[in-house]
């Protein structure tokens, strides 16, 4: 029964050759990215790759050294933050401790000159969207971490911005709260149809919430694609290494095919013949009996029960570690002899 903040036509967002330098250090090396109207795109990558900087350039909290950012087609590179019409949520709870939940939520509206009663009404609507309208009178210290982030979300949405920017909004929360709020953010985003850029270093989070993911590495975008696409067809070793839990194994490439784990698999992309390293996903390796003739021999180093599946680390006879995912009921003893065999799947190779 809650009404969404006044809805607007969704805007697209583009980065065009965005370069950012801090002094002599180049942090963004020409970022190009087009986010479609109403889309949720995650910027995913290891710590220090420039995700936050890219988001801050989009928000207007940092000025690009070169290149441009556009919102709804308009070049906003010289537009101050408060006029870019973006809502932001950060990792650390950024609520004002001395203001009530309602006062925190209406803050942006009051600053824009919205009359107090109207601002309070809209704040309560926004709090309704995140399921917190009943806590409007409370103060931040009386809320859990998850509730504080919901207030931060309500505060970001209350002005009906054209774009929502989320910078690791869940990383300070414990696991259960994190996945709950993650799914809620996604449902809300879909319902409002708001164009959203979501920064995270957590691949599971990115895979779960995104329409598309932009994988960043060392100040560049390595690949942009739907979660399935990135997972199944990583365009570069950096993407293969970052998405999934691959083992990196020595391989020999001959005629565009990789010889690895006693099998021959097709190679993703172009790769010259010669020694290489292949990225092998745990779910693409089968565990066989020691008496089997397929695959290669090894011994169990470690076996982890993960609830729905079990993940086992096998050391091959030539000393390499292979991660295998298999049925949870299949128990293995430390030091047990097994064989591991690769399924016939295309592999990323470097
Ligand atoms: P994290 O997840 O750890 O925040 P990130 O991918 O978001 O990583 P950024 O915060 O964008 O990365 O930082 C990218 C690089 O830019 C880092 O090496 C960081 O030290 C550097 N950097 C960021 N802000 C500044 C600044 N104001 N002055 C100098 N260097 C900076």
TrEMBL record:
SMART domains: AAA. This is ABC-type quaternary amine transporter. The keyword Nucleus does not apply. Residues 13-243 form the ABC transporter domain. Gene3D superfamilies: P-loop containing nucleotide triphosphate hydrolases. Keywords: ATP-binding, Nucleotide-binding, Transport. InterPro entries: AAA+_ATPase, ABC_SmlMolc_Importer, ABC_transporter-like_ATP-bd, ABC_transporter-like_CS, Mo/tungstate-bd_C_term_dom, P-loop_NTPase, Transp-assoc_OB_typ2. It comes from Xylanimonas ulmi. It comes from the Bacteria. GO terms for molecular function: ABC-type quaternary ammonium compound transporting activity; ATP binding; ATP hydrolysis activity. Its EC number is 7.6.2.9. SUPFAM superfamilies: MOP-like (SSF50331), P-loop containing nucleoside triphosphate hydrolases (SSF52540).
């Amino acid at each position: 029964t809650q009404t969404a903040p006044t809805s607007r036509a969704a805007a697209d967002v583009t980065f065009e050759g965005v370069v950012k330098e801090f002094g002599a250090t180049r942090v963004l090396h020409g970022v190009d990215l087009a986010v479609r109207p109403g889309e949720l795109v995650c910027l995913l990558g290891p710590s220090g790759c420039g995700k936050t900087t890219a988001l801050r350039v989009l928000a207007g909290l940092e000025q690009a050294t070169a290149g441009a950012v556009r919102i709804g087609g308009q070049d906003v590179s010289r537009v101050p933050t408060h006029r870019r019409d973006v809502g932001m949520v950060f990792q650390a709870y950024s609520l004002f401790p001395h203001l009530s939940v309602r006062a925190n939520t209406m803050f942006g509206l009051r600053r824009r000159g919205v009359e107090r009663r109207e601002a309070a009404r809209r704040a309560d609507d926004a709090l309704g969207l995140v399921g917190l309208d009943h806590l409007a009178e409370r103060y931040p210290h009386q809320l859990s971490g998850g509730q504080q982030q919901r207030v931060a979300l309500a505060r970001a949405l209350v002005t009906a911005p054209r774009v929502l920017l989320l910078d690791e909004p869940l990383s300070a929360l414990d696991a259960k709260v994190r996945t709950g709020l993650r799914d809620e953010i996604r449902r809300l985003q879909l319902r409002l149809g708001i164009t959203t850029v979501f920064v995270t270093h957590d691949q599971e989070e990115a895979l779960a919430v995104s329409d598309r993911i932009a994988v960043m590495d060392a100040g560049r975008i390595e690949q942009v694609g739907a979660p399935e696409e990135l997972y199944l067809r990583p365009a570069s070793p950096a993407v293969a290494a970052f998405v999934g839990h691959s083992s990196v194994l020595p391989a020999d490439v001959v005629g565009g095919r990789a010889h690895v784990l006693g099998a021959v698999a097709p190679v993703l992309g172009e790769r010259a013949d010669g020694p290489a390293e292949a990225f092998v996903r745990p779910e693409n390796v089968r565990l066989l009996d020691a008496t089997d003739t397929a695959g290669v021999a090894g011994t169990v180093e470690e076996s982890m029960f993960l609830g729905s599946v079990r993940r086992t680390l096998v050391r091959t006879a030539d000393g390499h570690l292979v991660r295998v995912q298999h049925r949870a009921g299949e128990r293995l003893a430390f030091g047990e002899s097994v064989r591991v065999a690769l399924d016939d799947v295309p592999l990323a190779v470097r």
